[in-house]
């Protein structure tokens, strides 16, 4: 990889505009890390992109001189996705944040990818429409980041994830060429599906500058309840029974005992702290269907739950959802370093996986709490630790390695929604096999033969250790 010389710097400033180019110490430092703990590397320049043409001009220069480019939205990813491990340029998208169109005839929205997820939700909901993907980070996360990570969220079970909504993209290839994929089309089989290929590509194939997503009518009614269990297996059996009863709830979330304690201490909403597991169950849609489904689910829960609490109104429902969304923030208060992971198993294996996580935590003497999207098997084992404690961090690393292996043994995956980035790179081959890795590398070469987009990610070396800095 080349460095940014004076000549390249001048060209980049000309392409980006002087108000968009930063290489002072503070700017470099503040773009050297993202939400992932214990990863940091300094870039040489930070550029705030303002248009597709400008991104194209910047990439042409970086391509010519083989300068690495790390695309960054809100940097809320948890896999080291935006850490500039080979220096070069951090290309920030947050100034490209215009909502370009809500098309009520085609039920689509088109926007620049620096727009936040929450801003899109608010704009479409004001028109009685609905964009389901709702990552816990949606207040800050950009839609470009969601698309590049294929973000999920609390509504994934019923509505799917980001990949199920993106139908068209404008993207800049590493050589600066601009491509348009898909469009406002519900059907399109013209060639390979480049739209789907770019969704989840983690900034390694192209810079996505605009996107079109499909929208749904906004559900007329929403209802939420909590079911408290003395026994985690009872909670897991309840999840299976709900699905077996042919009900697909809009939300089916799980918190283990450790998480309940901490969330209650944080949110003070009256969660019973002696419970082994809580399910947060929601339904939305036509009021009559919501009522019927909630009643059926309440009856199923009653078979094994100690108690059930149904939200009285929308305000209380929102309070319960917010409490679940605050699980990470609540846990993060306990210790200086919080490592949130993302092992996913078939939902029939949730109880076994939660049990295994608890056993592994005990074996390595590290504190791991688990919460997550029970309905789709996506668990977030979260470790509260301290990056300065070398001995503990090594045990944490080993514990997580064992957790990923356990997930795979149960037919699961190493990441359900947070992506590979740096953190999971050493484990990717465990999931896709050597032939899978070769195909993926071939795709990368086809898009980015000079490997300038997000180098060091997805296929990073063999080491299984995180980089610990600032001890
Ligand atoms: C508190 C919290 C809760 C979370 N909850 C969830 C959740 O419920 N579900 C879930 O799936 N994830 C969740 N996440 C992680 C999630 O991936 C991100 O929050 C979100 O999708 C990333 O958006 P971002 O704008 O911050 O992207 P960034 O972190 O800036 O970037 C993420 C990746 O996308 C690439 N990228 C960003 N923008 C572009 C672009 N325009 N073109 C090409 N590549 C690009 C980057 O290079 C990087 O590889 C959570 C994270 C936090 C901190």
From TrEMBL:
Query: Does the UniProt entry include the keyword Flavoprotein?
Result: yes
Q: Which GO terms describe its molecular function?
A: (S)-2-hydroxy-acid oxidase activity
Q: What class of enzyme is it?
A: oxidoreductase
- PROSITE patterns, per the entry: FAD_PCMH
| Matches recorded under InterPro entries | FAD-bd_oxidored_4_C, FAD-bd_PCMH, FAD-bd_PCMH-like_sf, FAD-bd_PCMH_sub2, FAD-linked_Oxase-like_C, FAD-linked_OxidoTrans_Type4, Oxid_FAD_bind_N, Vanillyl_alc_oxidase_C-sub2
Q: Which SUPFAM superfamilies match?
A: FAD-binding/transporter-associated domain-like (SSF56176), FAD-linked oxidases, C-terminal domain (SSF55103)
Top-level taxonomic group: Bacteria
* Keywords tagged on the record: FAD, Flavoprotein, Oxidoreductase
Q: List residues of the FAD-binding PCMH-type domain.
A: 39-218
> So what EC number does this one have?
1.1.3.15
Q: Name one Pfam family in it.
A: FAD-oxidase_C
* PANTHER family per record: GLYCOLATE OXIDASE SUBUNIT GLCD
**What's the protein called, per UniProt?**
Glycolate oxidase
């Amino acid at each position: 990889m080349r460095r940014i010389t004076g000549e390249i710097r001048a060209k980049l400033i000309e392409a980006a505009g002087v108000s968009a180019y930063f290489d002072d110490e503070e700017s470099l430092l503040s773009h050297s890390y993202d939400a992932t703990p214990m990863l940091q590397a300094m870039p040489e320049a930070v550029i705030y992109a303002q248009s597709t043409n400008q991104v194209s001009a910047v990439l042409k220069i970086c391509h010519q001189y083989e300068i690495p480019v790390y695309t960054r939205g809100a940097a809320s990813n948890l896999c080291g996705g935006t850490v500039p491990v080979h220096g070069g340029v951090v290309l920030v998208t947050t100034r490209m944040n215009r909502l370009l169109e809500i098309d009520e005839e085609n039920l689509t929205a088109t926007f620049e990818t620096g727009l936040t997820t929450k801003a899109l939700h608010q704009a479409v909901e004001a028109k009685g429409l609905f964009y389901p993907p709702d990552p816990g980070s949606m207040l800050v996360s950009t839609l470009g980041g969601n698309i590049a990570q294929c973000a999920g969220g609390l509504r994934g079970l019923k509505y799917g994830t980001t990949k199920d909504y993106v139908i068209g993209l404008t993207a800049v290839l590493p050589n600066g060429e601009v491509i348009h994929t898909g469009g406002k089309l519900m059907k399109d089989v013209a060639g390979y599906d480049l739209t789907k290929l770019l969704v989840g590509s983690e900034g390694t194939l192209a810079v996505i500058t605009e996107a079109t997503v499909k929208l749904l009518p906004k559900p007329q009614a929403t209802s939420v309840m909590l079911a408290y269990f003395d026994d985690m297996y009872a909670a897991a059996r309840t999840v299976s029974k709900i699905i077996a009863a042919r009900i697909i709830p809009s939300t089916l979330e799980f918190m283990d005992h450790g998480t309940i304690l901490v969330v209650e201490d944080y949110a003070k909403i009256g969660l019973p702290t002696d419970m082994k597991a809580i399910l947060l169950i929601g339904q939305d849609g036509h009021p009559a269907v919501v009522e019927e489904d909630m009643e059926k689910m309440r009856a199923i829960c009653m078979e094994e739950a100690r108690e059930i609490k149904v939200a009285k109104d929308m305000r209380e429902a929102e309070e319960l959802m917010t409490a679940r969304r605050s699980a990470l923030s609540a846990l993060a208060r306990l210790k200086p370093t919080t490592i949130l992971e993302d092992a996913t198993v078939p939902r029939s294996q949730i109880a076994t996986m939660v049990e295994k996580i608890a056993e592994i935590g005990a074996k390595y003497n590290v504190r791991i709490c688990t919460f997550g999207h029970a309905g789709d098997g996506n668990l977030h084992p979260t470790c509260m630790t301290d990056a300065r404690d070398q001995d503990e961090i090594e045990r944490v690393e080993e514990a997580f390695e064992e957790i990923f292996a356990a997930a795979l043994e149960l037919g699961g995956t190493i990441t359900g929604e947070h992506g590979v980035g740096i953190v999971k790179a050493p484990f990717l081959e465990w999931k896709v096999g050597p032939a899978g890795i070769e195909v993926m590398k071939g795709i990368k070469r086809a898009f980015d033969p000079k490997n300038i987009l997000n180098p060091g990610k997805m296929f990073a070396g063999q080491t299984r250790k995180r980089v610990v800095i600032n001890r």
